[in-house]
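Morning - iron/sulfur cluster inputs below, output right after.
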Amino acid sequence: MIINREACTGCGRCVPYCPMEAILWHKKKDKKRGEKPYSEIDREKCVECFVCFRAKVCPTDAIQEEKLEWPRILRRAFSDPLYVHGGTDVPGRGTEEMKTNDVTGRYLDGYIGVGMEFGRPGTGTYLREAEKAIKRLVKMGVSLEPLNPLTQLIENKETGELRREVLGEKVLSAIVEFTVPIEKAQNVFRAVKEIAREIDTVFSLDLICKVAPDGDIPILKEVEKAGLIRSINGKVNVGLGRPLYKL
Ligand code: SF4
Ligand code: SF4
């Protein structure tokens, strides 16, 4: 994203819309030097989420789209929820697996789904920080979700290293996804705590499992055992179709 310096009046209306504080507002005039106020976008901080553009708050249309080349286009792919990711054909940062388990049967009895949402909430992340987690998880034998956009950036499947040219790209958030048998939950939580100490951003940890017919949620006991703070959220999809699995 860019701001056309000639068109910008420096009104500052766009500034609060940027979640990354990437719009720099130079609001002081220096009349002697003939300067006028203006805003500009810090390209390093900008994650190409398109919020400022879509908000249509600029009275002079000074906020303008630019053609994004590889690897910068990844910023938009991981940050703009309306952008359809070329590797998954769905908009957004992850896959649809977590939300469509009633059809896909991704998370079966005895398994948990894990999502690590790097950069969330509201901080952003460089892909090199997500790589640290991927390398750690691959080392412990975890098999990452193949249809996930981050997994598709892995260059070396043995080590979990991402393609070198993508590491310096900053995104609003990026999700590492995988499933493991529930008896491996404590191993995963130990690794997650180590990763938290090594990375230079924040992340949210998503845990998914099937609810038993008696209402029991098996993952909760594991969460308590690990001393993690939990917040239960539910996502319900209606009318997705006939369940594929019989277990
Ligand atoms: S595209 Fe997003 S990150 Fe970039 S300046 Fe606009 S609001 Fe900020
Ligand atoms: S809203 Fe438009 S004119 Fe106002 S500071 Fe932002 S880019 Fe400049």
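Note: Residues 1, 17-18, 20, 22-23, 41, 46-52 surround iron/sulfur cluster (ligand 1) (CB under 6 Å).

O.
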